[in-house]
Amino acid sequence: MNLVNGDCLIEMPNIPNNSIDLVFVDPPYNIGKAEWDKIDDYMGWCALWIVECSRVLKPNGAFWISHSKPLVLAQLSGMIKGRGLRNWITWDKLNGNPAIQAMGGPMIGATMMTSARSWQPMAEYLIYHADEGEWTSQCDKERGFIFEPLRAYLDGERKRADVPHRKVIEALGMRGHDSHFFSPVQWKLPLPNQYDAMRRLFNASGNEYLKREYEYLKREYEDLRAEFENLRCTFNNPGKMSSVWQIPPAKTSFHATPKPVELMRRIIESTSNEGDTVLDPMMGSGTTGVACINLKREFIGIELDEKYFDLAQKRIREINAQMRLDLDRKSL
User: Fold this and answer.
1) CB 298 within 8 A of CB 1
2) Distances, alpha carbon 145 to alpha carbons 26, 120, 213, in Å
3) Rounded to an integer, what distance in angstroms lies between the CA atom of residue 52 and that of residue 64?
4) Cβ distance 24 to 64 under 8 Å?
5) Which residue stretches of the chain are H helix?
6) Buried/exposed code over 48-80 (b: 16+ C-beta within 10 A; e: otherwise)
Protein backbone atom coordinates (compact mmCIF):
# COMPACT_ATOMS: atom_id res chain seq x y z
CA MET A 1 0.00 0.00 0.00
CA ASN A 2 1.63 3.22 -1.18
CA LEU A 3 -0.20 6.53 -0.63
CA VAL A 4 1.24 9.79 -1.94
CA ASN A 5 0.07 13.35 -1.28
CA GLY A 6 1.00 15.19 -4.47
CA ASP A 7 0.28 16.04 -8.08
CA CYS A 8 -0.10 12.89 -10.18
CA LEU A 9 1.73 14.51 -13.11
CA ILE A 10 4.73 15.01 -10.83
CA GLU A 11 4.47 11.72 -8.93
CA MET A 12 3.64 9.25 -11.70
CA PRO A 13 7.03 9.60 -13.43
CA ASN A 14 8.45 7.84 -10.34
CA ILE A 15 6.47 4.70 -11.21
CA PRO A 16 8.36 2.25 -13.49
CA ASN A 17 7.18 1.51 -17.01
CA ASN A 18 4.80 -1.43 -17.45
CA SER A 19 4.46 -2.09 -13.72
CA ILE A 20 0.73 -1.54 -13.07
CA ASP A 21 -2.03 -4.08 -13.71
CA LEU A 22 -5.02 -1.73 -13.49
CA VAL A 23 -5.43 2.04 -13.59
CA PHE A 24 -8.65 3.70 -12.49
CA VAL A 25 -9.00 7.45 -13.00
CA ASP A 26 -11.91 9.47 -11.68
CA PRO A 27 -10.73 12.93 -12.79
CA PRO A 28 -12.35 16.24 -11.94
CA TYR A 29 -15.24 16.63 -14.39
CA ASN A 30 -14.55 20.35 -14.77
CA ILE A 31 -18.10 21.29 -13.83
CA GLY A 32 -17.26 23.67 -10.99
CA LYS A 33 -17.96 21.45 -7.95
CA ALA A 34 -15.04 23.13 -6.18
CA GLU A 35 -11.82 24.95 -6.99
CA TRP A 36 -10.14 21.65 -7.85
CA ASP A 37 -12.91 21.10 -10.40
CA LYS A 38 -12.07 24.18 -12.50
CA ILE A 39 -9.24 23.42 -14.91
CA ASP A 40 -8.01 25.58 -17.79
CA ASP A 41 -7.28 23.64 -21.00
CA TYR A 42 -9.03 20.63 -19.54
CA MET A 43 -8.49 18.30 -22.49
CA GLY A 44 -4.80 19.21 -22.69
CA TRP A 45 -4.43 18.40 -19.00
CA CYS A 46 -6.23 15.08 -19.49
CA ALA A 47 -3.91 14.17 -22.35
CA LEU A 48 -0.92 14.48 -20.01
CA TRP A 49 -2.15 12.03 -17.38
CA ILE A 50 -3.47 9.62 -20.03
CA VAL A 51 0.06 9.40 -21.48
CA GLU A 52 1.53 8.70 -18.03
CA CYS A 53 -1.12 6.12 -17.15
CA SER A 54 -0.51 4.36 -20.46
CA ARG A 55 3.23 4.31 -19.79
CA VAL A 56 3.01 2.69 -16.35
CA LEU A 57 0.36 0.12 -17.37
CA LYS A 58 1.47 -3.34 -18.38
CA PRO A 59 0.82 -4.15 -22.06
CA ASN A 60 -2.22 -6.19 -21.06
CA GLY A 61 -3.30 -3.88 -18.21
CA ALA A 62 -6.81 -2.51 -17.69
CA PHE A 63 -7.37 1.25 -18.13
CA TRP A 64 -10.59 2.67 -16.61
CA ILE A 65 -11.80 6.28 -16.74
CA SER A 66 -15.08 7.66 -15.38
CA HIS A 67 -16.90 10.86 -16.35
CA SER A 68 -20.34 12.42 -16.22
CA LYS A 69 -20.24 13.78 -19.78
CA PRO A 70 -20.43 11.18 -22.58
CA LEU A 71 -18.90 13.46 -25.22
CA VAL A 72 -15.91 14.27 -23.02
CA LEU A 73 -15.43 10.60 -22.16
CA ALA A 74 -15.53 9.71 -25.85
CA GLN A 75 -12.73 12.23 -26.45
CA LEU A 76 -10.69 10.76 -23.59
CA SER A 77 -11.21 7.29 -25.03
CA GLY A 78 -9.79 8.51 -28.35
CA MET A 79 -6.63 9.68 -26.57
CA ILE A 80 -5.79 6.19 -25.29
CA LYS A 81 -3.38 4.72 -27.81
CA GLY A 82 -2.69 1.04 -28.37
CA ARG A 83 -5.47 -0.25 -26.12
CA GLY A 84 -8.84 -0.97 -27.65
CA LEU A 85 -12.12 0.09 -26.05
CA ARG A 86 -13.58 -3.13 -24.66
CA ASN A 87 -16.60 -1.70 -22.88
CA TRP A 88 -18.58 1.47 -22.37
CA ILE A 89 -20.29 1.18 -18.97
CA THR A 90 -23.35 3.18 -17.94
CA TRP A 91 -23.59 3.54 -14.18
CA ASP A 92 -27.33 3.91 -13.49
CA LYS A 93 -27.55 5.66 -10.13
CA LEU A 94 -31.37 5.80 -9.99
CA ASN A 95 -32.78 2.34 -10.72
CA GLY A 96 -31.89 -0.21 -8.13
CA ASN A 97 -31.24 2.52 -5.54
CA PRO A 98 -33.52 1.75 -2.54
CA ALA A 99 -32.89 5.13 -0.88
CA ILE A 100 -34.03 7.16 -3.90
CA GLN A 101 -36.86 4.79 -4.77
CA ALA A 102 -38.21 5.12 -1.23
CA MET A 103 -38.59 8.87 -1.80
CA GLY A 104 -41.11 8.44 -4.59
CA GLY A 105 -41.18 4.95 -5.99
CA PRO A 106 -41.58 4.69 -9.77
CA MET A 107 -42.67 8.35 -9.98
CA ILE A 108 -39.46 9.81 -8.59
CA GLY A 109 -38.08 10.34 -12.10
CA ALA A 110 -41.20 12.22 -13.19
CA THR A 111 -41.14 14.27 -9.98
CA MET A 112 -37.60 15.36 -10.72
CA MET A 113 -38.60 16.33 -14.25
CA THR A 114 -41.65 18.56 -13.74
CA SER A 115 -40.00 21.81 -14.86
CA ALA A 116 -37.17 20.51 -17.01
CA ARG A 117 -36.94 20.26 -20.80
CA SER A 118 -34.59 17.27 -20.91
CA TRP A 119 -34.25 14.03 -18.99
CA GLN A 120 -32.77 14.29 -15.55
CA PRO A 121 -29.17 13.01 -15.65
CA MET A 122 -28.94 10.17 -13.16
CA ALA A 123 -26.01 8.28 -14.68
CA GLU A 124 -22.26 8.43 -15.00
CA TYR A 125 -20.15 6.61 -17.55
CA LEU A 126 -16.98 4.55 -17.59
CA ILE A 127 -14.69 3.31 -20.33
CA TYR A 128 -12.65 0.14 -20.06
CA HIS A 129 -9.65 -0.15 -22.39
CA ALA A 130 -7.38 -3.20 -22.59
CA ASP A 131 -5.26 -4.92 -25.19
CA GLU A 132 -4.24 -8.49 -26.02
CA GLY A 133 -1.78 -7.55 -28.76
CA GLU A 134 1.19 -9.32 -27.22
CA TRP A 135 -0.82 -12.47 -26.58
CA THR A 136 -2.26 -12.48 -30.10
CA SER A 137 1.09 -11.83 -31.80
CA GLN A 138 2.85 -14.42 -29.63
CA CYS A 139 0.21 -17.04 -30.37
CA ASP A 140 0.33 -16.24 -34.09
CA LYS A 141 4.12 -16.43 -34.04
CA GLU A 142 4.27 -19.71 -32.12
CA ARG A 143 0.95 -21.18 -33.22
CA GLY A 144 2.37 -23.74 -35.64
CA PHE A 145 4.76 -25.01 -32.97
CA ILE A 146 2.61 -24.85 -29.84
CA PHE A 147 -0.50 -26.39 -31.32
CA GLU A 148 1.19 -28.76 -33.77
CA PRO A 149 -0.06 -31.95 -32.01
CA LEU A 150 -3.66 -30.79 -32.30
CA ARG A 151 -3.27 -29.46 -35.85
CA ALA A 152 -1.61 -32.69 -36.96
CA TYR A 153 -4.40 -34.73 -35.37
CA LEU A 154 -7.18 -32.81 -37.15
CA ASP A 155 -5.44 -32.71 -40.51
CA GLY A 156 -4.34 -36.32 -40.24
CA GLU A 157 -7.91 -37.47 -39.61
CA ARG A 158 -9.12 -35.39 -42.57
CA LYS A 159 -6.55 -37.01 -44.83
CA ARG A 160 -7.33 -40.52 -43.55
CA ALA A 161 -11.01 -39.92 -44.25
CA ASP A 162 -10.03 -38.60 -47.69
CA VAL A 163 -12.15 -35.46 -47.28
CA PRO A 164 -11.00 -32.42 -49.30
CA HIS A 165 -11.13 -28.91 -47.89
CA ARG A 166 -14.01 -28.04 -50.22
CA LYS A 167 -16.31 -30.55 -48.54
CA VAL A 168 -15.40 -29.26 -45.08
CA ILE A 169 -16.22 -25.74 -46.26
CA GLU A 170 -19.63 -26.89 -47.47
CA ALA A 171 -20.38 -28.86 -44.30
CA LEU A 172 -19.44 -26.02 -41.95
CA GLY A 173 -20.57 -23.13 -44.15
CA MET A 174 -17.38 -21.23 -43.33
CA ARG A 175 -16.23 -19.90 -46.72
CA GLY A 176 -12.64 -21.07 -46.48
CA HIS A 177 -12.01 -20.65 -42.77
CA ASP A 178 -11.86 -24.42 -42.33
CA SER A 179 -8.21 -24.27 -43.44
CA HIS A 180 -7.41 -22.62 -40.11
CA PHE A 181 -8.21 -25.96 -38.45
CA PHE A 182 -5.65 -27.82 -40.56
CA SER A 183 -2.91 -25.32 -41.40
CA PRO A 184 -0.11 -24.07 -39.10
CA VAL A 185 -0.85 -20.54 -40.36
CA GLN A 186 -3.40 -18.85 -38.08
CA TRP A 187 -4.41 -22.24 -36.64
CA LYS A 188 -7.41 -22.29 -34.34
CA LEU A 189 -9.38 -24.92 -32.47
CA PRO A 190 -12.84 -25.72 -33.90
CA LEU A 191 -15.88 -24.93 -31.78
CA PRO A 192 -17.80 -27.94 -30.39
CA ASN A 193 -20.51 -27.77 -33.09
CA GLN A 194 -17.83 -27.48 -35.81
CA TYR A 195 -15.97 -30.50 -34.44
CA ASP A 196 -19.19 -32.52 -34.39
CA ALA A 197 -19.95 -31.49 -37.99
CA MET A 198 -16.47 -32.57 -39.11
CA ARG A 199 -16.85 -35.87 -37.26
CA ARG A 200 -20.15 -36.59 -39.06
CA LEU A 201 -18.57 -35.68 -42.39
CA PHE A 202 -15.45 -37.80 -41.88
CA ASN A 203 -17.47 -40.79 -40.62
CA ALA A 204 -20.00 -40.72 -43.47
CA SER A 205 -18.11 -43.53 -45.23
CA GLY A 206 -18.79 -45.89 -42.33
CA ASN A 207 -15.32 -45.71 -40.79
CA GLU A 208 -14.63 -43.97 -37.47
CA TYR A 209 -12.50 -40.86 -37.40
CA LEU A 210 -11.99 -38.04 -34.89
CA LYS A 211 -12.44 -40.50 -32.01
CA ARG A 212 -11.13 -38.09 -29.39
CA GLU A 213 -13.88 -36.39 -27.40
CA TYR A 214 -14.01 -32.62 -27.73
CA GLU A 215 -13.61 -31.94 -24.00
CA TYR A 216 -10.23 -33.72 -24.01
CA LEU A 217 -9.21 -31.86 -27.15
CA LYS A 218 -10.13 -28.55 -25.54
CA ARG A 219 -8.25 -29.45 -22.35
CA GLU A 220 -5.08 -30.15 -24.34
CA TYR A 221 -5.53 -26.87 -26.18
CA GLU A 222 -5.79 -24.95 -22.90
CA ASP A 223 -2.72 -26.72 -21.53
CA LEU A 224 -0.69 -25.88 -24.63
CA ARG A 225 -1.55 -22.20 -24.57
CA ALA A 226 -1.22 -21.80 -20.78
CA GLU A 227 2.40 -20.74 -21.13
CA PHE A 228 1.27 -17.50 -22.79
CA GLU A 229 -1.96 -16.94 -20.88
CA ASN A 230 -0.35 -14.27 -18.70
CA LEU A 231 -0.04 -12.10 -21.82
CA ARG A 232 -3.82 -11.84 -22.09
CA CYS A 233 -5.75 -9.03 -20.45
CA THR A 234 -7.56 -10.15 -17.30
CA PHE A 235 -11.31 -10.54 -17.41
CA ASN A 236 -12.89 -12.52 -14.60
CA ASN A 237 -16.34 -12.91 -16.09
CA PRO A 238 -18.94 -12.16 -13.37
CA GLY A 239 -21.68 -14.05 -15.20
CA LYS A 240 -25.07 -12.56 -16.01
CA MET A 241 -24.27 -8.86 -16.06
CA SER A 242 -24.73 -6.23 -18.75
CA SER A 243 -22.86 -2.99 -19.41
CA VAL A 244 -25.52 -1.05 -17.46
CA TRP A 245 -24.69 -1.17 -13.76
CA GLN A 246 -27.38 -0.31 -11.23
CA ILE A 247 -25.38 0.62 -8.16
CA PRO A 248 -26.49 3.18 -5.55
CA PRO A 249 -24.24 6.22 -5.08
CA ALA A 250 -21.99 6.32 -2.04
CA LYS A 251 -23.91 7.07 1.15
CA THR A 252 -21.04 8.86 2.86
CA SER A 253 -20.10 12.53 2.64
CA PHE A 254 -16.36 11.80 2.43
CA HIS A 255 -16.00 13.72 -0.80
CA ALA A 256 -17.95 16.03 -3.11
CA THR A 257 -18.07 13.29 -5.78
CA PRO A 258 -17.49 9.95 -4.02
CA LYS A 259 -17.62 6.59 -5.80
CA PRO A 260 -19.34 3.68 -4.03
CA VAL A 261 -17.16 0.79 -2.89
CA GLU A 262 -19.40 -1.64 -4.80
CA LEU A 263 -18.61 0.11 -8.10
CA MET A 264 -14.88 -0.14 -7.46
CA ARG A 265 -15.17 -3.73 -6.26
CA ARG A 266 -16.82 -4.73 -9.53
CA ILE A 267 -14.16 -3.01 -11.64
CA ILE A 268 -11.20 -4.37 -9.69
CA GLU A 269 -12.53 -7.89 -9.22
CA SER A 270 -13.41 -8.37 -12.90
CA THR A 271 -10.30 -6.87 -14.53
CA SER A 272 -7.47 -7.75 -12.15
CA ASN A 273 -6.32 -10.70 -10.05
CA GLU A 274 -5.31 -11.14 -6.42
CA GLY A 275 -1.84 -9.73 -5.84
CA ASP A 276 -2.07 -7.34 -8.82
CA THR A 277 -1.17 -3.67 -8.44
CA VAL A 278 -3.88 -1.02 -8.90
CA LEU A 279 -3.13 2.67 -9.42
CA ASP A 280 -5.57 5.50 -8.71
CA PRO A 281 -3.74 8.77 -9.51
CA MET A 282 -6.63 10.94 -8.26
CA MET A 283 -7.82 8.79 -5.39
CA GLY A 284 -9.99 11.39 -3.61
CA SER A 285 -11.27 9.85 -0.39
CA GLY A 286 -9.60 6.49 -1.07
CA THR A 287 -12.51 4.27 -2.13
CA THR A 288 -10.34 2.44 -4.68
CA GLY A 289 -7.83 1.65 -1.92
CA VAL A 290 -10.58 0.32 0.35
CA ALA A 291 -11.79 -2.01 -2.41
CA CYS A 292 -8.21 -3.15 -3.08
CA ILE A 293 -7.69 -4.15 0.54
CA ASN A 294 -10.92 -6.14 0.55
CA LEU A 295 -9.92 -7.88 -2.69
CA LYS A 296 -6.25 -8.49 -1.78
CA ARG A 297 -4.73 -6.19 -4.39
CA GLU A 298 -1.72 -3.93 -3.98
CA PHE A 299 -2.61 -0.26 -4.19
CA ILE A 300 -0.88 2.97 -5.20
CA GLY A 301 -2.95 6.08 -4.54
CA ILE A 302 -2.04 9.68 -5.36
CA GLU A 303 -4.08 12.68 -4.19
CA LEU A 304 -3.29 16.38 -4.56
CA ASP A 305 -5.72 17.79 -1.97
CA GLU A 306 -4.25 17.38 1.51
CA LYS A 307 -7.66 17.23 3.16
CA TYR A 308 -8.82 14.36 0.97
CA PHE A 309 -5.45 12.65 1.23
CA ASP A 310 -5.67 12.63 5.03
CA LEU A 311 -9.20 11.28 4.81
CA ALA A 312 -8.16 8.53 2.38
CA GLN A 313 -5.22 7.61 4.58
CA LYS A 314 -7.53 7.36 7.60
CA ARG A 315 -10.11 5.20 5.79
CA ILE A 316 -7.47 2.86 4.42
CA ARG A 317 -5.70 2.60 7.77
CA GLU A 318 -9.00 1.72 9.47
CA ILE A 319 -9.98 -0.94 6.93
CA ASN A 320 -6.49 -2.42 7.17
CA ALA A 321 -6.78 -2.60 10.94
CA GLN A 322 -10.22 -4.20 10.68
CA MET A 323 -8.93 -6.80 8.24
CA ARG A 324 -6.09 -7.70 10.60
CA LEU A 325 -8.52 -7.92 13.52
CA ASP A 326 -10.80 -10.24 11.55
CA LEU A 327 -7.86 -12.46 10.63
CA ASP A 328 -6.76 -12.62 14.28
CA ARG A 329 -10.28 -13.62 15.36
CA LYS A 330 -10.42 -16.37 12.72
CA SER A 331 -7.10 -17.77 13.90
CA LEU A 332 -8.30 -18.11 17.51
Assistant:
1) yes
2) 44, 57, 23
3) 14
4) yes
5) 8-11, 42-56, 70-79, 98-104, 108-112, 133-146, 148-160, 165-172, 192-202, 214-225, 261-271, 287-294, 306-331
6) ebbebbbebbbebbbbbbbbeeeebbeebbeeb
CA distance 312 to 300: 12
Whole-model pTM over 0.85: no
Give the DSSP per-residue string, 161-184.
TT--HHHHHHHHT-TTGGGGGTSS
SS3 content of the chain, % helix, strand, coil (to 5): 50, 15, 35
Q: Mean pLDDT in runs of 10 for the chain (332 residues)?
A: 95 97 94 76 96 96 96 96 93 77 51 66 93 73 78 92 88 72 82 91 90 92 80 88 92 75 97 97 95 96 95 91 73 64
CA nearest neighbour of 199 among 226, 172, 220, 221: 172
- Burial tier of 182 (Cβ tally within 10 Å: 0-12, 13-18, 19+): middle
How many other C-beta atoms are found inside a 10 Å radius of the C-beta of residue 86? 16
